[in-house]
Amino acid sequence: MIAISRRDTFPLAITVVALVFLGLFLLYPLFNVFGASFLDRAGAHFTFANYTRMLSSRFYLGSLTNSLLLGVLATLLTIALGVPLAFCLARLPIPGKSLLLALASLPLVLPSFVAAYALVLLFGRAGIITHLLRDIGIPFSSIYGIAGMTIVFALTLFPYVVFPAVAAFKAVDVSIEEAGQNLGSSRWRTFWTVTLPVVMPAVLAGGLLVFIDVLENFGVPFVLAEDKPILAVEAYKLFVGETGGNPASAGVLGVALIVCAAIALLIQRHYLGVRRFSTAARRAPPELVVTPRLRRLASTYSWAVIVAALVPFIAIIVISFTEFRGPVMHANLSFDNFRDLLNQSSRPLVNTLALSTAAAIAAAAIGVPIGFAITRFRSKISALLDVIATTPFAVAGTVLGIGLIISFNSGWLVLTGGWLILVLAWMVRKIPFNVRASAAILQQIDPSLEEASINLGVSPLMTFARLTVPLMTGAVIGGMVLTWVTVASELSSTVVLYSGPWATMTVVMFQALEGEGAGIASAAATVLIVVTVLPVALVYRLLRRHELGMM
Amino acid sequence: MWAGDVLTAISIDHVSRSFGTVRAVDDVSLEVEDGEFFTLLGPSGCGKTTLLRAIAGFADLDSGQIRFGNRRIDTLPPHRRSTGMVFQNYAIFPNLTVGGNVAYGLKARGVVAAEIKRRVARALKLAQLDGLGERWPHQLSGGQLQRVAIARCLVIEPEVLLLDEPLSNLDAKLRVEMRAEIRQLQQELRITAVYVTHDQEEALAISDRIAVMRAGRLEQVAKPQQIYRAPETPFVAEFMGTTNLLTGTVAGCEGEMLRVRVGPQEFRAAGDRREDASVCFSLRPEAIRLLGIGEAPPPGWSTFEAELGEIEFLGAMTRVALKINNGAVVRVASLDLLPDELNARGRVTAAYDPRRITVFPG
User: For the residues B152-167, what does the mean pLDDT come to?
Assistant: First the structure.
């Protein structure tokens, strides 16, 4: 018999509420996607026919291999770019270091498909730079295809690797490096044999984020894949297909996406399982003393990566102030794009701001208590909650969107067509992030503080509200703002779920790009950048205070 | 002046608590009297902290009961038990000032603001923290944090004060000062206190009674001097400071004295055992004296011959290892003895008081 003491009623209540919520809005929709993939066309009989049909199709099998190949290449390139950058930022004397760190968080703001589109305008077949290169005799085809997408992903997703890696490099206890050198290892060898292995878990955690983000990303392949099939895009096309939706075939691709992400997650867990390094450095390691030549090299490298990542930003802002005649760009300063955008409606901007805010608050309101329950109370049920609360992380936005539509299109709870379904989808998608952020900060708060409060006569519930939450404030707000920023630029579930009046800024951009309205899209992107830069600045300050350790 | 009239005895009745397959507290029963300073002493992992946390309500019981006076409290949630706990790391709330920390428990009880102010001021004074109420925890030293932790507990006038290795994070000198202060405060307030430590010297200095614990069970519960002078088990004898534990066979009886043979060497010890019985006995190093050449032992003492081993000079004291014939080593602690006086001698005569030997069943 499992004895449940009274002391545990509060976390138990959290756990039950969270499980009900996630059961309804995560597991049930996923179950329906799964179920749909096993039903015949009439939706009546169980069949494996969808799987045999899809897996024997060269096109859809190609989408699977393309997605996996893209995920692996983009992850490797991101790590290859990000780890040296993180090392430079954490340990080397680089001029303008804090500015670099601030700029490095900017790619989180711009939807990656907009960055991709900006690069198309520069490096596409008719791109400005493509022409320039051809004019001076350098043969450059274009950035379409796997290589181009890999580059776009590396330039937009590198913060996922860089921030945890910077934190990890700063947390390395210098004495273990000194011990390595004292035992006769050169500085270079010490880096490879001591420092790098110690930061590797953090790097791989970030790498996993990149891999899963690439796998589920919908917008970038939509812009750059051309004829190459990509899982997330094909699932969307099958579901909303012009010839009538095919939930069964979309379900098969959705299941394939989830399986790939889950396998990556399990591999990473297995790797981290035996590598729990606690690097409890009392203070950050000092900057290394290096030769001026190495210092110049490191500075050049760091600035080059960050500037490259900012190219899409600058391009989008410049383009938004450029005159368009139809799809053709002319090099004149013009506010027409903004005028056209405003003439359409201000509703999408309001939607984006209001719904993102609602989702950020709601995701924190459920994610923080879950983080509390799984860190402070170890039991079988909290372990189950831990697994389920991590699941959204492995679920592509497109798939969750399809699941929510199948589940809440009719019956006792109808959500399709409204705003709530968007907020719910975003909330569910960002719960893992909020749970991780609050669990991370809770691990730094000694449980004896809470025990002291309870011992002084404050109930567990009030202790959580009056002591634990105030102690977590910085991290919780940081998590909320990051959630806000990332859902404001979310596309993959939004594009499936939005309806009529509830279009958001990303939907406006997406539709404008589809319809050759690059001017309006870039104006919308500029507006989004402006309204989200302020919160990012705030996040940056908070992240700095938390030693960038909460991502 | 404080809650001096509310005296609370604690009775712990057949309490058990397991973690997985480990029985952290294994069927422990004991009574702590009103206003007593009671210490749970033992090596790490002996269950002393688990027992303390069970009293506070942070470790649930698998079986047994805990009562304060006649009231059963093990069924109460921890925030209703009226215990004041001082944590090993002090657990001072970093987001509150010193005054805010001390007022925390009063606010939870809905005490009115003016009363809170008065009682916080009094508690700060009692803990010698006058004028530090506005400070932030990070501005305080370890000793001051310790005082805040104590003031924060005392201000709620708990029935029982629980202290979980409160001095282990302080440096040696401060530790000695603070333990005297804690003892003095407890005496002034006449509050029942349960104190957990692994430091036997601290336990001896501070306690009315000590319970020595081992592997979840009580080895011995007694006053400090009994625990030291009359340990009931070899474990207690060895844990309470350095001792010589020797094993031998009873060779015979002389009135109230046993003759115990350890190899070829015979020791005399107070006790009552049958002949040929295998026994183990404890002889404290400070109960042995090295005799000068030709010096006679004090009346009633016995002697043995031994070879000099390592000599360790510790200033006030010198430790000497003596090798007796069968190879066993007997350690001696001698005040005012200089190594130079010994170095020239190969063999020495050592004297001991047979009444200071404690004999255990072998």
Answer: 92
Q: Which of the listed ranges A47-56, B114-123, B317-326 does the model predict with the highest average pLDDT?
A: B114-123
End-to-end CA distance of chain B: 52
Pick out chain A residues at pLDDT < 50. 1-4, 546-551
* Amino acid identity, position A453: S
Q: The sheet that has B160-164: what strands, in order across it?
A: B83-86, B160-164, B192-197, B37-41, B209-214, B217-222
CB atoms B94 and A462 under 8 Å: no
A454 contacts B91? CB cut-off 8 A: no
Note whether B95 contacts A470, CB cutoff 8 Å. Answer: yes
Query: Strands B288-291, B347-352: parallel, antiparallel or unpaired by DSSP?
Result: antiparallel
| pLDDT score at A242 | 56
- The confidence band for B4, taking pLDDT boundaries of 50, 70 and 90, is very low
Query: Which DSSP state fits B138?
Result: G
CB A13 within 8 A of CB A7: no
Select from A3, A446, A449 the Cβ nearest to the Cβ of B60.
A3
| Best A445, A456, A476 residue to mutate vs chain B (most B CBs within 10 Å) | A456
Mean pLDDT throughout B140-145? 90
Indicate the residue type of B255: G
Chain B neighbors of A458, CB-CB under 8 A: 79, 104-105, 108
Under 8 Å between Cβ of A453 and B58 = no
* CA-based nearest residue to A512, from A522, A499, A497: A522
Mention every residue, 6+ apart, whose C-beta is less than 8 A from residue B103: B116, B120, B155
Cite the beta strand spans of chain B per DSSP E. Answer: 10-19, 22-32, 37-41, 63-68, 71-72, 83-86, 160-164, 192-197, 209-214, 217-222, 244-254, 257-262, 265-270, 278-283, 288-291, 302-313, 317-323, 329-335, 347-352, 358-361
Tokens (6 digits) for A263: 């396998």
- CA atoms in the 13 A half-sphere facing the CB of B359: 23
For residue B258, give both structure tokens. Answer: 């046993």
| Per-residue tokens: A309 | 């990542």
- From B78, B88, B93, residue closest to A455, measured CB to CB: B78
Reported pTM = 0.75
* CA nearest to A542, candidates A441, A398, A465, A458: A441
The HSE-up count of residue B171 (CA atoms within 13 Å, CB side) is: 3
Contact of A454 with chain B, judged by CB distance below 8 Å, is answered with yes
Range B196-224 average pLDDT: 95
Predicted ipTM of the assembly: 0.80
Judged by CB atoms closer than 8 Å, whether chains meet at B56 and A455 is answered as yes
Exposed (0-12), middle (13-18) or buried (19+): which is B44, by Cβ within 10 Å?
A: exposed
| Confidence category of residue B288, pLDDT binned at 50, 70, 90 | very high
Identify from A378, A455, A462, A473 which residue to disrupt to test chain B contact, counting B C-beta atoms within 10 A and taking the largest count: A455
Cβ <8 Å between A452 and B85: yes
Residue A8 CA to residue B137 CA, distance in Å, equals: 30
pLDDT at residue B202 greater than cutoff 70: yes
Q: Which of A358, A364, A375, A492 is nearest to A430 (CA)?
A: A364
Least Cα distance to A431 among A380, A378, A487, A379 occurs for A487
**Distance between start and end Cα atoms, chain A:** 39
* pLDDT tops 50 at residue B20: yes
CB pairs A-B closer than 8 Å: 76
Q: Tens digit of pLDDT for each residue in B214-235?
A: 999 999 999 999 999 999 999 9
Give the minimum alpha-carbon distance from B109 to chain A in angstroms, rounded to a whole number. 7
Partners of residue A379 in chain B, C-beta under 8 Å: none
Query: Which among B52, B86, B93, B164 is the top mutation candidate for probing chain A, defined by the most A β-carbons within 10 Å of its own β-carbon?
Result: B93
